[in-house]
Amino acid sequence: MPRIFHIPGVIFLICAFVLLFLVSISLPYLTALDIARVKFKTGSPSVGQDSNAINEIRFGTWADCWYETDGVRACSSADNAYTTTIYNGGRQDFVTIGASWTRGLAVHPVATGVTFIALLLSLSTHVTATLLASLTAFLAALLTLIAFAIDIALYAWVKHQVGKLDGVASNTDTAPGFWMTFVSFLLLCFAGCTVCFGRRRDRMEGATTYNYSWKDRFRRRY
Q1: Among candidates 123, 110, 126, which has minimal Cα distance to 191?
Q2: In 43-175, which ranges are continuous DSSP H helix?
Q3: Which residues 6+ apart lie within 8 Å of 21 measured at CB?
Q4: Tell me, what's the pLDDT at 128?
Q5: 3-class DSSP state for residue 2?
Q6: What does the mean pLDDT of the chain come to?
Q7: CA dist list (Å): 21 to 15, 54, 107, 185, 206
Q8: Which residues of the chain, if any, have pLDDT below 50?
Q9: What is the model's pTM?
Q10: Beta strand ranges found along 10-101 (DSSP E)
Q11: pLDDT tens, 20-61?
């Protein structure tokens, strides 16, 4: 019966690790797993030194990618704390998404690493290792929550900045990577509880079995 509680905890950790790992790769390698994206309705905005008009820009963990109106996709070089400058149609007005808003995205791979450690510990049958697995899962959940807060801040700032461009109408939305981080946080919370609870039930049932067997032997003697 206790395995019913412990095994889901391991599954939660596996799912959380996979989701966080994918988000940690993100742009420019997995362009569909961005954190925030902007779709331009009107105007002819452009990015950086590229003067070609774009209709969408996506923000990921390590880079941003934009899609030109002719269908061409381009991405900035992969780096932590990247900076993005978006110009309006006449390149007379621009807004900047500074490095201070993207630097914190590196918390995602840190949370991924801690989640992997929790997963390895959860596979052990030793009580101490299981307790450490539960504590590590909660630590990973805390780091993931911090990463999610950074995602929210980036989304809010991008929406605020793009809204200041003259002559440009746009929609700023959260992207798959944003929600994958949130789901990972929930999974890690569930994992921390179920792994610990499952092993605790193991110990309690083991102790109960030992007590019963001791009483039976005592009764047989007397």
Answers
A1: 123
A2: 107-122, 127-162
A3: 112
A4: 81
A5: coil
A6: 86
A7: 10, 29, 12, 13, 37
A8: 1-2, 200-215, 217-218, 221-222
A9: 0.85
A10: 36-42, 46-47, 54-59, 64-68, 73-75, 84-87, 94-97
A11: 999 999 889 999 999 999 999 888 899 988 888 999 999 999
H helices of 2-126, in order, are: 3-25, 107-122
Buried b (16+ CB within 10 A) or exposed e, 135-173: ebbbbbbebbbbbbebbbebbebbbebbeebeebebebe
Say which residues have a Cβ less than 8 Å from residue 199's Cβ, sequence separation at least 6.
2, 6, 127, 130, 131
Give dist(CA 189, CA 175) in Å, integer: 22
Question: Do residues 63 and 49 touch, judged by C-beta distance below 8 A?
Answer: no
Nearest Cα to Cα of residue 185 among 158, 154, 150? 150
Tokens of 117: 């450690």
The position carrying tokens 């700023």 is 172
Q: Which domains does the chain have, with CATH numbers?
A: 5-202 (1.20.140.150)
Sheet holding 169-174: strands in order across? 73-75, 64-68, 54-59, 36-42, 169-174
The helices-and-strands tally (H runs, E runs) of the chain is 4, 8
